[in-house]
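A common beginner's mistake is to predict each chain separately and then try to dock the pieces by hand. The better habit, illustrated here, is to supply every component at once so that their relative placement is modeled jointly.
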Amino acid sequence: LAKTTQPISMDSYEGQEVNITCSHNNIATNDYITWYQQFPSQGPRFIIQGYKTKVTNEVASLFIPADRKSSTLSLPRVSLSDTAVYYCLVGDPDSGAGSYQLTFGKGTKLSVIP
Amino acid sequence: NAGVTQTPKFRILKIGQSMTLQCTQDMNHNYMYWYRQDPGMGLKLIYYSVGAGITDKGEVPNGYNVSRSTTEDFPLRLELAAPSQTSVYFCASSYLYKEVSEKLFFGSGTQLSVL
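With all components supplied together, the output reads:
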């Protein structure tokens, strides 16, 4: 089973860049890496997805090294509203054809301090 | 667009009661999922469906049942509610466009307490 490891929590001041790293040593060749954000009392929300190198959208950047055994979510100039739990997911190649189960770990709780 | 809609938002059950959590999506997604989230924890997959008429167990299926008679609807049934089923339940859907990685769209959740 593809498994991810990420820090339990992080603190950051407003305006700083935040980097959250996720380890996924057993990532499969066809797996993509996906990050979700969850605010209290809400369902998770898709942030960004990538396969290799770097992906950037209006919210974040995702850096993936050549060996793809880790990935880093980068949030530029965070604000108080970025306080949330961030989950790193990879596809589960052992779930069988056409039925991939995405596993959410405990995620990283980011607290942005004024 | 409505996206994924869950009802009810809150519910209190007595031990042994039964109920159905409703979930519907209007995005014509083929995959649908039910997760539960206990306080301070990640999400655990209960059941999922890859299309109408097809369902399968996730990580924690005991005490739950599902059905998928249409593409839009994926209700979750709790039989004989127990305090261990106190949790927040999220329904999600996705459209398989890559082989192993899918964007999930989540509902706003149902907070269930079993007393």
